[in-house]
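Hey, sorry to bother you again with one of my protein questions. I've been puzzling over a protein and I'd love to understand its fold better. Take your time with it, there's no hurry, and the full record follows here:
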Amino acid sequence: MLKIRPVEEADRMRVISCLEAFLEGKQHLNWIKGVIGKSGVLQRKGELHKIFNELRFYDNLYRYQEILKECQKEGWV
């Protein structure tokens, strides 16, 4: 039987994988901001904050700090 993920979980997993791609230098800042901005995670209060906490092991990277600041500036976190 095929397991279907709820839309919320699929959105969340997409944002996490895209954030990881950005943090690893595979994508640029405007790209990840677009992904986050168009995702459904912003419609669920606190969801993006939880995602950043899960990726906390990247917090010593400049890119982590950069995207976190941008999200704060946008009022997303």
Observations:
- DSSP finds four helices and no strands in the chain.
- The mean pLDDT is 93.
- The chain has one domain: 7-74.
- The CA atoms of residues 1 and 10 lie 18 Å apart.
